[in-house]
Amino acid sequence: MKNFSGMASFLKRFARGSREAKSARSLAFAISCLLVAAPALKASHTESSPANNERASFLLAPHDSRFNCGYDPRGAEDEIHNHRLNALRLSSRLAPTAARSIKHEAQDEGDIAVIEDDGAIIVPPSKFDLKNRSLLFTPEGDGYLVARGDTKLSTDFGFRLGYFFGVDNQLLSNADNGYRDVPLLGAQFPFYGVYYDTIFIGTNGYITFGQGDTNARLSAAALATELPRIAPLWADLDATDGGDIYYNRLDGRHIITWNAVSETSHSGKSTFQAVLYDDGRIAFVYKKVKTSSSLIGISPGNSELDPQAINLSSPPAEVIRGPLFESFSAQRRLDLPALTRAFYSTHADAVDAIYVWADFSYDNGQGVAHSFNVRNNIEGIGLKLFDRGSIYGSPSRLSSIITMGNQNDWPSDPQQHVVGLNSAISIVCHEQGHRWLAYIHFDAEHDIKDDLLGRDNSHWSFLVDTRTNSEGSFSSLMEGNAWRDNGTGSFTTVESAVNYFTPLDEYLMGLIPADDVGAIHYLVTDDQFKSLLREKSPITGFSMNAIRKTATVEQIVEREGPRVPDAASAPKEFRIAFILLTEQGAAPSNSTVKKMDKYRDSLVRYFSTATNRLGSLDSTLIKN
Q1: 8 Å CB contact between 587 and 78
Q2: Which domain holds residue 88?
Q3: 72-110 pLDDT per residue, tens
Q4: Are 222 and 89 members of one domain?
């Protein structure tokens, strides 16, 4: 009955939205959502065991006990943009003594590179400073002039948006990570020379054009290169409980209001507006803002220009062409290009991956650990070729950066269970795996298939069989599940832990040839159900009805091309470096250094086991 009452509440919310929208499209989405939820509701109604109640909750709600990976496909670009914003703020903070030389203090404790902050690596909190203020963006030629404004917050909010759509246009049962398309009443809105008659209002504090977006990860790179976007307060906002989002048409302007919306996992509520004037001007109006991190900016979308970091409290006098932004954080952050440059000032450019540990708390973004690639020179693994290593101080070799956060948040024993089916060391190795995994599509049935891909298109789908041993007690470090065929059209996950890499993983890592991979099994269900399941993390004891299908490496090669270099010539040994960052004037304790050594040694040994002794890590530091 619990699940039926939840669905009733969901349909009541939808009904309010239907009356507001009065559209057949909305009704179609409601029916489709009911169909998607029906299998879980049926199971709950016919079987009242705790296991089935748990299974229904798993389907219909976020899985709070899952490992939240912080891999970021745009991380290299975003950290460069943050580096430039930090340089802008640092020059202002140090003026007029900005020219003074600050040298970092670095020393090695065995094979741990200990780096002391030099005043430019640890970025101080940049708290939101536009409370009870407004900004005005005035179109000038092909850009915008930014200035402090005098627009007041309108109390005439207008029409409340009663429902939102999520990933794959699914109707949501809440107001978190969603969007709503709203036809503009009265007049179109000109933005970067293009007139729009519809806006897409996102729950996460932005407006997009052309289509909606659900992204909660703040990204100056996404601001620049993805959809045209107006972001008065891009943050991980949730208007489900207490807050509301509104649209209104008043004389000569459209007003979009986020009223008393809260940030996920952060206390406090935010109220702000975006005002779109018929002449193309844009006003951002802030009453109060309570967020741990946020981004403000505008962008024409699909821009070839880098987003320009500016100080919105004191905007530049000249017209800005292309994307512009400022980000805020209530916590300290790291300037990663500054940190890695400090490392390379005393160490050789001979490292494939850098692990960054800190001895203090800071904003490490979303996820347990934050990782991204700065360079890719491998073909056939689903990643484009690119090279941003030089700005990180590595002209030739560095591929990945993994920031592990505050070492105090990690257990002293790397083998200890942490979350979901993961141990601490399996999470560390998981982030290493993102150098190669998991990004591939394959060709089948005259179509490009994404059935192997799960959350963020960088993990294996929940529906893929990724067992790493014959009995299925382990599944891949890169997610998926070990599925047991029950022989009745139903399948059950049977793994007890996430451990090691699959043959497909090893092929993409360059450790084995394509001929050694074998069949790749995955489950097929209807598209709506697939969308609900594919991004879930591994779980044991979950059952479902499905059809099993098989993909092959040949189909992957047909879509992605052959792996270059192939297994015969690809490297099998990878060099890593552990960096321990400390605050100015602070030295790490002996116990902290020993703990880092323990993780370093455990990762080296675990990676060897995880790759079936086909690959190895070398963590020896090499000085200049």
Answers
A1: no
A2: 70-121+333-436+572-618
A3: 999 999 999 999 999 999 887 654 433 334 455 568 999
A4: no
